[in-house]
Structure formats: structure tokens, C-alpha cells
């Protein structure tokens, strides 16, 4: 299952690679990383129909996670449409409602509880 | 007719021979003299008693006339004696007021007639008579006496008039002098009162000034704390990120250690995997340290920001400072307005010389400029222009002997009318309660007075605003 992680912090890559080392090794998950919303959109266009899930930070310079979400849900991307899970340090209800309204599939607050994230990821039926 | 005329003449001769008529006529002279002298000495200060007695000068003549008439005693010398007495009395009175110039004048007028009368009486008493032509001269002298006396009398009255005039003038001058003195005293009193008032006011103003200075210091400190307050959310976010990393890397390292232990306990350890795990662990520890440092530096920066400036300059990396405060300002605004988003452009010159600066103070300047920039783009965004992309840029470069920090936003801009006032203390365009109006004023002071640099602004309303900080690095 291909997962695209979008966060402006480069160390997120290291963290995910170590947290999911077993799943990566076993080939259960494959991670790609983008460091901004714009980069993520480019990646999606260059790798059509690959990404099953997008894990995106909201608070990023330039295009925010919510804008990326809107693009993903509204732009004509090649099917199937990826699932989008928002990750943010601002876990307030307003942001949550906004994300849900834009069609986010899930909403997690930082710091990320990796055990819970793992369970959620495992619950997604791989295509 | 002839008889009667003769009779008449006889009657008169008989009168003359029986009474001292000449003495009675001299009484008129006494009265006239008295009136003249009194009118000359008409001021009360001129011998009031003598003036009173002068009125009775005619009495001896009348009384003498009566007594001698009753006695039938006739003596032509009585008149001479009486006239001399009148002269003497008048001279005596005038002599007493000899400081009075009209009196002196009349005294002179009295000299010649008196001499005449004395000579006349002396001759009479001695029984001498002038021979011709001296008798004629003497007679002419007697006639001239009248003119002589009245001449001097007129002069006397003229002098009196002049003296009165002069006196009046002097009195007037004196009155003026007195008035002037009174006015002077009044003015001096006024000046004293005013001086006292002014001194009091000056003291009060000094006290007020001291209080204002104290208040200003408090305001400056409050401004620092207020800007810090605005940042708290941004700072919390900035600290939370590295702390998350610290926690996550620590967690994952625990897992790695467990895995490593399991591998070592295994009868067939995979040395390749062991090496990989150890390498990851080392890497993670480095990351934990790195993010811990990052959090610590943010806390340090926050403390430096709120601390009273020590004013000690130290070589400062302007790029790092600008980057740090750009993020702080951005996250500060983001924390307040979740929907806000802006593009941040940074263009930091490589190999920028270190600038001798007070990092806390310079940071406050940058923070203020960034906060303003974000405020401006946020305001323009709220107007809802289609296709508007809020952008805040920071660029550093070396310009001759200075380092230039240029902070530009494409926000609402500053109207030309306002541009000259933005560095004035307490000037703010923000709604009351949102800005103290001290931010840019303090920033200007810190750059100009604290670092010998310049802070300038360029703007076009509705287009952009660009603040440029120039700091000498030598």
C-alpha cells in the first residue's frame, strides 16, 4: 500500500521509516515523502493511481494541508481517489470541522500516536 | 460865594489844625499794604499769624487819630512814624519768609521807600531841610518810590505766578513719580507672584516628567511583554514540533533497543541487522539532541526577548535571527487565525558577515516588522481579492559596509499620509486595544540609537510595503 506523507519537517521521513521499519521491510507499506503541498500535488500527478493514502500536515508554509486536501478532492486526478488523513498540532474543533467539510477521511492530532496510526493503517483494506 | 469858599477853606484849615488827618489817610496806606502783602502770601504756610495781624495794621492809625483828635494834639510827624511802622511791619513779615522769592522781590521794593521814609523822618526829627536843588531831588525821589515799589510788587506777583506754575508742575511730576513708583511696586509684586507660580508649575512639571519617564519605561516593558504574548502560541507550536521529534525518536529508539536485545539473545544473531540497528540508534540519538537543541534555542530566544536588554552587543548571525523570528511571527498569527496562510520567501545571502548586535533587541525589531507584514497581508486577504496570494519575503545581503535586511509584504500598504508618522511613539492604525503604537517607534530607536543603523520604509498603498534595516558590521 503506497502512502504519501506530506510535512515540511524533513525529519518526519526518518521517523516514519523507523516506526514502520517492519511493515516497510515486509512490503506491507511503501512510503513516499513530500515536503510541501505543492510538491505533493506534483508527486500525485507524476505517479498516477499509485497513492492509496495521503497523510498530510495542515500547518505548512505555502500551500497548507487543507488546500492540498481540497485539490485532492476536487481536482480531476486519475482514479482511484486517494484517502486523505490530516495530521495537525492544532487539534481544535474549527480546524477539524473544516477538514471534515473538505472531505478528509480522518483527522489525527500531533504528537502522533504511532500505535493508533498503525491500527488505522492496518484497518484500511489494501487494494 | 467868595465868603463861603473862604469859610470852607478855613474849615478845612481848622480841621487840619485840630486833627491829624494825614495819619488817618496813612491808615489807608496801611490797609492797602496789608492787603497786598496778604495776597502775595496767600498760602497758609506763609505765616498765618502774621497774616492775621497784618489785617489790623490800619488800627493804630485810626486809634491814634481818635486819641489825638480827642486830646486836640496835632503832630505831622505821627504820620511819618506810622508809615515807617507799617514799612517796618511789612519788612519784618517779608523777612521771615525771605526764602520765598516773591517776598524777596517785594523786600527789594520796600528798600528804597523805607530809606526815603527814614531819611525824611531823620531830617524832620533833626530839624534839617534839604537845600535846593537837593530838596527837589528828594521830592522827586518820594514820587519815584511809588513806581519803584509797584514795579517790584508786579515782579513779585509775576514770580509768584511762575512759582505756582512751577510748583504745580513739580507736584504733577511728583504725582507721576509716585504713580510710577506705585506701578513699579505693583509690577514687582506681580512678578514675584508670577515667579512663584512659575516655580511651582516648573516643579510640578518636573514631577510629571519624572512620572512620564517611569510610565514610558513601563510601557516599553509592557510592549515587549505584549509582543511576547502575541507570540506565545507561535512559540508553543515551534517548541512542540522539536519536542514531538524528541519523544518520537526516543520511543522508536526504545523499540530499536528491544529489537537489538532480541537479536542478541537469538541463537543465530544477524550481525548485519545488529549493525543497522546500532547505526539507526546513533542516528536517532543525534536527532534527539538536535531537536532538543532547537527547542532550547527557542526558549532562549523567548527569554532574551522578554528580558530587559543588557545592551551588550555580540557577533550575531542575522540570517538565523531573521529566520527564527519569521517563523515565530508566522506561527503566532497562525495560532490566532487558523485559516490564515501565507507564502514565506527567504533569500538569505551566503557568507553574510556577523553583525555586532544585541540579539534580543534586534530580534524584537525583526519580530515587529514580520508581525506587521503578516498583519498587512492578512488584512488584504480578508478583503477577498480573487487570486490574491499573501506573501512575506525576507532578503539579506551585504551592502558595502552594512548588512541589509529587507522585509517585504504584498499587503495593504501604507498610505503616503501615514508613512511619515509610523515611527512616532503611540501612532497606530490598529483598532484601540490591538496595538500600543510603540512597536515601530521602539524598532526605530533600537536600530538607530542602539546599533547605529537605519530603518527605512517604502510602500505603495494596496500593493506592497518594504522595510529595510541596515546595520553596520564594523
Strands in their spatial order, largest beta sheet of chain B:
2-4-5-7-6
Tally of contiguous helical segments of chain A: 6
Number of domains of chain A: 1
Strand content of chain B: 5-15%
CATH topology grouping of chain A:
Rossmann fold
Q: Determine the oligomeric state from the structure.
A: heterodimer
Helical stretch tally of chain B: 12
Distance between the termini of chain B: 150 Å
Coarse structural class of chain B: alpha+beta
Average pLDDT rating of chain B: 85
Helix fraction of chain A? Answer: 40-55%
Number of strands of chain A: 5
CATH homology-level superfamily of the domain at 310-474 in chain B: Histidine kinase-like ATPase, C-terminal domain
The helix content of chain B, as a percent range, equals: 55-70%
CATH fold-level topology of the domain at 310-474 in chain B: Heat Shock Protein 90
Tell me, what's the shape of chain A?
globular
What is the CATH class name of chain A?
Answer: Alpha Beta
Structural class of chain A: alpha/beta
Taking the sheet with the most strands of chain B, its summary is:
5 strands, mixed
Shape of chain B: rod-shaped
Secondary-structure element order of chain A, N to C: EHHEHEHEHEH
Describe the structure.
The complex is a heterodimer of chains A (127) and B (474). Chain A is α/β, with parallel strands linked by helices and 127 residues long. Chain A has a single domain (2-113), classed as Response regulator (Rossmann fold). Chain A has helices at residues 11-19, 21-26, 37-46, 65-74, 93-101, 114-123; strands at residues 2-6, 30-34, 51-57, 83-88, 106-109. Chain A has a 5-stranded parallel beta sheet, with helices on both faces. In chain A, helix 3 (37-46) packs parallel to helix 4 (65-74). The mean pLDDT of chain A is 86. Among the domains of chain B are: 2-129, no CATH class; 310-474, 2-Layer Sandwich (Heat Shock Protein 90), CATH 3.30.565.10. In chain B, the strands form 2 sheets. In chain B, strands 2-4-5-7-6 form a 5-stranded mixed beta sheet, covered by helices on one side. In chain B, strands 1-3 form a two-stranded antiparallel sheet. In chain B, helix 2 (21-40) packs antiparallel against helix 4, helix 7 (134-265) runs antiparallel to helix 8 (271-306) and helix 10 (359-382) packs antiparallel against helix 12 (439-451). Classes of the chains: A alpha/beta (127), B alpha+beta (474).
